[in-house]
Design goal:
The protein has 8 helices and 24 strands. The chain has a 14-stranded antiparallel beta sheet with strand order 18-17-16-15-14-13-12-11-24-23-22-21-20-19. It has a 7-stranded antiparallel beta sheet with strand order 3-4-5-9-8-7-6, with helices on both faces.
Length: about 475
């Protein structure tokens, strides 16, 4: 059926023989029922961006039931019902993630073609997995591009490679491949050639229309003035929940100084494996939006004990002044750490990430395309070399109602280019943000410090 189930035993103390026996006992008694997760391979998939493609030989499409995901997954068809050992399955294992993206059109004679492609592809990959794709190597591959994950010191490499096939329409197909311990290389190449050969880009609305609408909206926000747009902003506390057995997975807060148009942000979120991610940021903006400064850091601790770091703590900065945007990233271990810096003219669609989440309810109906330095739902402080691209659309089909209201709430969707994730922003009749929905059943709902201290007060890494 292409279902995969992980049995994870956690607790204090060293592993014992009884621990392994418990895992084997639980795993051996698992059965599946209901509809199969496998979609017919001959039907292929159609991505929301209007891209049709077929599964590579030996793979099948996994059904997607999450309305907040736009990427699709291909898993290998089982080669045998009873493999001789789990290690054999791992060695042969491979997966292919495919997602439709927006990608700039690059002229063949452009002397900065490789540099521009590297920045654009790196940004797409970092919003998917900032730890894996940091410092990835990008090379030309036929009519498109290829990225190989950089080795990490002290970590046994698990093969990973990404391919991108651009289209003159401004869209592109991004495929991310992960292989077993003995996989990769030729297997990746073979699967990609089959994917690329089957890909068809259907007629779609012009990307330039989204960009023009976004530029007009960013200009409108600047004319309105951020002092006026943020006049009602106040301290905010948010609880993050999901459908797991442990529904309270994190919290975030914003402390706002209206007089100085400045904010301080913090996010703490527990991952499925017990790791805890902490993002902190401070930012300020001028009333006309012409000047903006933001400094942020991200760190992930492994497991409940907090020992070690899962992806390398990073520090990100953004500075907008006189029409120039400067982005920089470096290790957060020390203020003197070497940083990489990129300078570019500020895109006409640029809206600073600090206040963007606060003005989502005031945006034009859309659809439109914005560019920013940070965005909620996994794209906070990822150290990308280019501004993130956000596609904002209205969702008139939403039927959710707020408590005490008879009409459905207004819903706005936002998708970070390359992520394959959609967030849904729900607004009450008063214009107040009620909640935000993310993939995998994750929600961000309004809360307060007292509630969060009750939920997380006994967790050292998560306590507010």
């Amino acid at each position: 059926s292409l279902h995969a189930i992980v049995v994870h035993l956690s607790g204090d103390g060293a592993l014992e023989a009884a621990d392994a026996a418990i895992v084997r006992q639980i795993a051996s008694n698992i059965t599946l029922s209901g509809a199969a997760a496998e979609a017919p391979a001959e039907a292929g998939v159609t991505l929301p961006e209007g891209i049709q493609l077929l599964a590579p030989e030996g793979f099948a499409a996994v059904a997607n039931s999450d309305p907040n995901r736009t990427d699709r997954l291909f898993w290998p068809r089982p080669a045998e019902k009873n493999p001789s050992a789990a290690a054999d399955v791992e060695k042969r294992w491979a997966s292919v993630e495919v997602v439709g993206v927006l990608f700039p059109s690059l002229e063949a004679n452009d002397p900065q073609r490789l540099e521009r492609a590297t920045r654009a592809l790196a940004t797409l990959l970092l919003v998917r997995d900032a730890a894996l794709w940091r410092d990835a190597k990008v090379t030309a591959e036929g009519n498109g591009w290829r990225a190989d994950a950089a080795p990490r010191p002290g970590v046994e490499p698990f093969p990973a490679r990404a391919y991108l096939l651009p289209d003159p329409s401004g869209r592109a197909l991004l495929a991310v491949m992960h292989g077993g311990w003995s996989g990769g290389g030729a297997a990746f190449e073979r699967a990609w050639k089959q994917l690329a050969a089957s890909a068809q880009f259907l007629s779609s609305s012009d990307t330039a229309q989204l960009e023009d609408a976004g530029a007009a909206e960013a200009a409108r926000l600047r004319r309105a003035g951020f002092g006026k747009l943020l006049a009602d902003a106040d301290e905010q506390w948010w609880l993050w929940t999901d459908r797991s057995a442990r529904p309270h997975v994190g919290w975030s807060r914003l402390q706002w100084t209206a007089k100085d148009l400045a904010g301080e942000f913090e996010l703490r979120r527990r991952g499925a494996g017990g790791d805890a991610t902490r993002v902190t940021a401070s930012w300020s903006i001028s009333a006309d939006g012409a000047q903006y400064r933001a400094d942020a850091s991200r760190a992930t601790s492994i497991g409940t004990g907090g020992a070690g770091d899962a992806g390398g703590a990073i520090r990100q900065a953004a500075n907008l002044r006189d029409g120039q945007l400067t982005l920089s990233v470096g290790a957060a271990a020390a203020a003197t750490s070497a940083t990489v810096e990129w300078k570019l003219p500020a895109p006409s669609q640029f809206v600073p990430g600090g206040p963007l989440a606060l003005v989502m309810g005031t945006l034009a109906p859309g659809p439109l395309l914005l560019r920013t330095d940070s965005f909620p739902g996994g794209a906070e402080c990822i150290g990308a070399p280019e501004p993130l691209t956000i596609v904002v659309r209205p969702d008139p089909r939403s039927a959710r109602k707020a408590n005490g209201e008879t009409e459905p709430m207004r819903c706005v969707t936002a998708s970070v280019n390359g992520s394959g994730r959609v967030s849904r922003w729900y607004f009450r009749a008063t214009g107040e943000l009620e909640s935000v929905e993310f993939p995998d059943g994750v929600r961000r709902v309004e809360s307060d410090l007292r509630t969060l201290r009750f939920d997380f007060g006994k967790d050292g890494q998560m306590s507010p």
